[in-house]
Every structure is written in C-alpha cells, then in structure tokens.
C-alpha cells in the first residue's frame, strides 16, 4: 500500500463505489409511469404521455391468467414504429414466478426497449441474470460499453434486499441505472404499517438513496397510491425530492404532471442558485474566501449545489432568471 | 456463475439471509415480561400471567449480592411442575460479568426452559457460545433441528452491536429467534439522550427491525420505563408495531395487556384487510388486473399484507368480520 | 472456535470494533471553530478563543489563488510561541485537489499541530496516507503509541463516504479521533435539500454517530450556517447532542459559546443524574434490585448514564449539586 501511496495521493481512490461526481449521470426520470400491459386502450394512450419514463407492466397490474396476452401486446407495441417521448421500459415478473424468462426474453428482442424494471430484486445474482440475457439477445449498442446500454432498474421490495442493497447496487455494471423503493411489498415484508407522516419509512428510503448515489445510480421513490388527491401527491413528491430521490413512480397518468413539476427545481431555489453562483464567482475573482449572502455563509460546496440546481432546471426546460452584480450585494 | 444461471433463474437465490416469506415464523411474542429472579412473590405471580413470554431475570433486576440466590429460585421454578401459559425464558447475565456461565448452565438444565435472553450481545461469537452450551446440556429436541429448539434472544445494547448486527443476526442458526432493542444501555453507550418523540431512536430501531426481518427473526422493542402511564405505553407500543417490531418488553405486569392489545391488529385494519382480501379475490377470478377500492389502487402486495393482518388477528383470538361482495363495490 | 470458547466466555470479544467503554475517551471537543487561514486579523483573534478546538482552515474558506499565502500564515502561527487554549487543528485541502501534499507536510512540521481535519474522506486509504506522513515527519510523541499521537478528523462529505464509513472508522488506528458530518457537501452529493426540521438528515447523522461510537471515536455535527441566529444555533446544537454527537463545527466566533453550553449537560440533567447516582448506590448497598424514582424504573444502565453525565459536567467546569438521602425518597 505504502509504495503506491508514495507516488502521490491522486492515486488514492476507492474502487468499490464511486460518487456521482465521477460517473455519467443517470437519465432524467422524474415520473416513471406504469401502464398495465393487458390494457390496449391504456397502451395506446401511453404513446402521448409526457412522462419521462413509461414502464409497460407485465407484473402486478396484470392478473396471472392475462400474463401471456399482456406480454404479446407489450411486445407488439415495443416493436412498432411508434414510441412514447420518454424512456421505454418494461417491468417483467419477478425471478421465481415462472413468468420472468419469457417476459425478459420477449421484451429484450423488441426494437424500442431501453430499460427493464426487475421486481423483488433480492440478490445481485438476479441483476447479473438480466445482464446475461442482454448479452445473449441484444445488439451491441445495448450491451455494456455500447452507445445505449440497456438500463436495469433494481426494485427493492424486501428486508433481505435492503440488507444486501450495497451488493445489489454494485451489480450489473454499465447496466444498472437506478434503485427503486417498492413501498407496498417492502412494508408487507418488513411488517411496517404506513402512516401519513411516512416517518416509519425514513430509514429505509434514506438508505436506498444514499446507496444509490454512492454507486452513481438514480433513486426512484414510492408510489402514491392515493391517486385522486393531487395535493397529497405534491407533498409526497417534494418530500421524496428533498430526501435525494431523483424520481417517483406513477400509477395513473394524472400523477405525471404533479410529479414532474415537484422533481423540477422550484423558482425560488433556481433564483437562489443563480444568486449564489454569481456572487461566488464575483467573490472568487476578487480573490476573497468565504463570505455571507442573506446572512448565510457561502462556500465551495454551496456553489456546487447551486450549479446542480441550475443544471436540473435547464434539463426540465425552465428558464434561468438573469441576476446582476447589483442583486447580490 | 453463468453455468448455474443457464439452468434457470429459479436457482438464483441468495444464501446469506432469507426473507420471512421463506422461513418458519418466529413465535408470537407480543409482550415479553421481565420477572425479577430474586423476588419469590413475583415469581409465584408470574405463573398466572397472560404474557406471551415471561423472561425470568437474573440480570439488571437482581443486585450482584443477590445473584446466587436468584439463580437458585429461578432454577427451582423452571424445573417444577408448574409453568406460565406463555414462553418460558431466562435472562442471564452478560458475557464477561463472571455470572454468565453458571447462569446459562443452570437454566439450560431445567425442564421448562424454552428461551434464553443474552444481554449485551456485541459479537456473533457470544451467540455461538450459547449454542455450544445447548449442545452440551440440552436434550435432542431442544437442539438445532429438534422439535423445539431452544430459542436465543440477542439483546442489542451498544454501538458495537449495531455495527455488527448483520453478523449477529446470521449467528446461532436454528436457535436465534429475535433481536431486541435495549434502549437504556444502548443510549448510554451511543450517547443518545431520549426525548418524548423518540426521533433520536428512529434510525436505530429501524435498522434493528429490517435486519431481524431479513434473517427471519422477531424484533422486540424497547421498555417503556414510564410504567404508571398506560396511555404513553399504548402510543409507544403502537408506534413500535408500525415500525415493524413484533413485540415489546414489559417491566411491570400491568403493561402486558396494553402491549398485547397494541400488537394485535386493530378492528379497523382487520375489516380493511377482509375487504381487500375479498375484493382482490373476486377481481382476480374475473381475470382483471389492478383496480381501485376506496380510491386506493389494490394490487398483489396489498393483498398479501391483508392476508398477514388476518393471520395475526386469528393468532390473537380476534374474530374476523364477515364481508360480502356487496361491501366491496 | 469451540476450543477457545471452552476456555470461557471472557475471551469471546470481537476485534473489529470496540465500544467506547473499552477505549480511551476522545478529547472533549464541543465547539470546533474554523478560522480562515488567509485572514491575519482572524488568525490573531483565534489565540484568545475559548473554543475547545480551533481548526485553521486552508480549504473552503480560502480561495485557490490565496492558498499558498494562507499555508504560510498558518504555518507561522502554528510554529510560534503562542497558541490558543484549545486543540490546535489544521484543515488541509482534500486529496486530489493538488494542494493536499504541501498543506499536510507543512502543518505536520509545525510545533503546535495537534490534529488534522481531512476533507472529503471517501476512502480509508486517505486516512492511511495521512498516517504515513505523520510517521515520516512528526516526532515520536506524535506518532502511534506516543504520548500525544496526532489526531485525524475524518470529514464525511459524500454518499460514497457514508457507504464506506465503517471501513473509514477502522482506519488510522491510534490517530483517527473523530468523524465529522459535513452537511453542505454531503447534501450536494446525495441530492438532499435541507429543511428546518432536518428530518432529511436524521438517517445520515445517526449512522455517522453510531459508527463513530462503535469505534471509540468522537462525532462532530454539522455547521449551522445561519450564524446570525443564536436561538436556531442553540436548538440545532441541543438536537445534535441528543443524537449522540460529541461536538459541533462553528464558522463564526460568536457560535462558540452557544455550542459549548449546549454540549455541556443541563442543570436539570445534572441534578437528575446526581439523584439517580445516589439512590442507586443506596439501593445497591441495601442489596435490593430494580426500583422506582419519580415513577421511573432505575436500573444499572441508567446508573451508568448518570455517571457519564456527571463526568461531562465536571469536564465542562459545572458544579455538581449536593444530593442527600432525603432527596431521593
């Protein structure tokens, strides 16, 4: 160890996991909308959805007897000339259900598939199994190192998965793109009873977020099952974003807009970010160190946070307000 | 890896820990009542206790000078013809106190002993030491693989234990039955000061719960030291249950009833579970997928949670209300 | 394993980490005040500071162009006859910035240096690099096993660091003295947006605290950037202390007093501790076990917590109230 250290600390870097700073960003996936694979009307409607990601569902939204028909419907849609504007994802059935092999092989063979959501990911081997099927069935550009590697979403739905989450997050290199908190199954497995405060979920959601970020992955928050209450959805979405989630599952088209607005930065935070950015740069040019703005000490990490907020606003199509030297004095 | 994977994903299962779904259930242990081993009147009274579990205490409730007499009293009771209705447990003194060998060997030789609580379990080796004494002293039916393997309760009382909790949970296979959160010693070790909100304990209790569940173990919540306030006890008990604990320690007989009621499902939740169960089964028979009930989307995980609630009600002796097709439309 | 176990459970002790009970205490470091290394007036003023620890800052408070001048100023101060009453610490620039080698070597060569804060500690190897420089540059008494080993503060500022925190805490044996929660950079990396409740930080702060304690280290809480609001600072300081932190960063001299008062035990808690101590000792002398005081059951762990509170009060120079037998009946 000492030998390599002598050559300089720039070589001292862990290889087990990497912070987001040193990796490609995961795709922007604010709302991830499930569309029941067995419902032709909803499948058709999904093509016009503004959701950042559409997850064509072969799992919980499809009853066992309807699985083969749903698989066929989804495969036809994913292989057609038409596709939604957002990411094209399929949620297959979990390993061990007996449906998963046909599900996965079928969707991987389609033209438009970009991502696969794997329910009940309880072990890193399950991720590696998906990777082995990608290697067997997909064209080179969808394989590791290709132009558009197929993305895998690891769905965390059990105590076992949470205990193994670091090993899961380290699996499927180049393909694993996000971890997802599947609250209903997770709570059933752990024995958690949900409350309106969601305090009982804080540990579990926080651990998922920090693990995802440590491995350069996105973090997708729970479904708001109360799909008729946009205000409850807004509150829950904003809370998830504050915890560090990068997006949220939607089970109804009318949830998409609320979620996507919540996961875009607020006007106030964009304005603040623009002011921090300008004042920091002016201050730095003048060769000064830490300084105050609105009674708060501004330093390098706050500057980086401001840059990140501005980048998200740009990605969400929100204009950045102009700020002048006068505004930050 | 790939060779075994090719034979099908049904073989892709982790071996390090297992979710509750794939293991025997831990025993129902809603209230675990400590009875001071040095107090003949309380020992006698314990025989009539309705508690799911009685933990005859040789540790904190017994002063050092009274240890040998208490050990003798407890051994006589545990070896007699009479026993309480609930589980018969002994809490021995911690490893390193100098009392633990005599405590353990004495209680393991008794006829009625069913479980041992091990205080200050800071390392998996301590669990394995208990197992080695079971193998040496107990009849075959109390050993691993026997009809009634003696159960071990691992008491988590320090920062070190929490950092090693996954290794502790993996120890004592076939004997380790539950992890227990010993708040007083734990807070003293970590430097936590308790508040009425218990927010400062949320991380620690949640981590214990999810680890216990990942290894198929029960999770026993903290003592409510405020033993004269049944309302505070009720609130604390219900909170623990929502976090996923399966039971709670009691230090006074008048705490047992409140705890056991809190850890049984509520009438409202049983009714809701019965409605979810029926509507899901009707919907499934009709070959439909996800659907709404009372404005909430019902799917497979919610159905499983409903089944679990009903099973707990049955175990606690609570009648399940009858629900008809008309009630779920 | 069984062979060693047979020789008695007193040899059953983990070696991976140790609870505070079995290690030297970390130094008392209630307030850790940053002083910008580039500001001669503030450097001079720091010599009169009552802070338990002064961290001469070469990192965020110093702009890149001012780094060499700041390094020289700090080195001169740390090598002079004068020193502040508290611990003398330097915060160097992070590994990978290009400044860190000159920073570290320069401050290690000074007479008064007692501790080094290492920003963005993302890997245990970074700690070991600091140790290797201590071995190369410091006199024997500042090396491992010496009379005053130089102390290292590991600053946790990223998701990666949190995921590796147990390995970081196990590094730099004999030198690593505390882990520090660097909220601004941490939140930017994880994507957390701060709120006034700080609920979004609870998981992260709690995990840092319990890991630090498991390895016998101090735990230093976040900066209160709102440096003009002493009441907000007080609330935040007391909260940190309840979570188990042993101290808190300060970025302005006027924060020191509020923090150091908050991290000293309150009069009420000292009085309660004195009452618990006396009543427990009286009860123990009388050979009785658990008993009640003010409606709360008092046992051995509560006694130990009381002793710890009294020890902290003594260290902070607060008088212990006299309690007599009559006061605890």
From TrEMBL, chains A, B, C:
<dbReference type="InterPro" id="IPR005000">
    <property type="entry name" value="Aldolase/citrate-lyase_domain"/>
</dbReference>
<feature type="domain" description="HpcH/HpaI aldolase/citrate lyase">
    <location>
        <begin position="30"/>
        <end position="253"/>
    </location>
</feature>
<feature type="binding site">
    <location>
        <position position="157"/>
    </location>
    <ligand>
        <name>substrate</name>
    </ligand>
</feature>
<feature type="binding site">
    <location>
        <position position="91"/>
    </location>
    <ligand>
        <name>substrate</name>
    </ligand>
</feature>
<dbReference type="Pfam" id="PF03328">
    <property type="entry name" value="HpcH_HpaI"/>
</dbReference>
<dbReference type="InterPro" id="IPR011206">
    <property type="entry name" value="Citrate_lyase_beta/mcl1/mcl2"/>
</dbReference>
<dbReference type="GO" id="GO:0000287">
    <property type="term" value="F:magnesium ion binding"/>
</dbReference>
<feature type="binding site">
    <location>
        <position position="185"/>
    </location>
    <ligand>
        <name>Mg(2+)</name>
    </ligand>
</feature>
<dbReference type="GO" id="GO:0006107">
    <property type="term" value="P:oxaloacetate metabolic process"/>
</dbReference>
<dbReference type="InterPro" id="IPR040442">
    <property type="entry name" value="Pyrv_kinase-like_dom_sf"/>
</dbReference>
<keyword id="KW-0460">Magnesium</keyword>
<dbReference type="GO" id="GO:0003824">
    <property type="term" value="F:catalytic activity"/>
</dbReference>
<dbReference type="InterPro" id="IPR015813">
    <property type="entry name" value="Pyrv/PenolPyrv_kinase-like_dom"/>
</dbReference>
<keyword id="KW-0479">Metal-binding</keyword>
<feature type="binding site">
    <location>
        <position position="157"/>
    </location>
    <ligand>
        <name>Mg(2+)</name>
    </ligand>
</feature>
<protein>
    <recommendedName>
        <fullName>HpcH/HpaI aldolase/citrate lyase domain-containing protein</fullName>
    </recommendedName>
</protein>
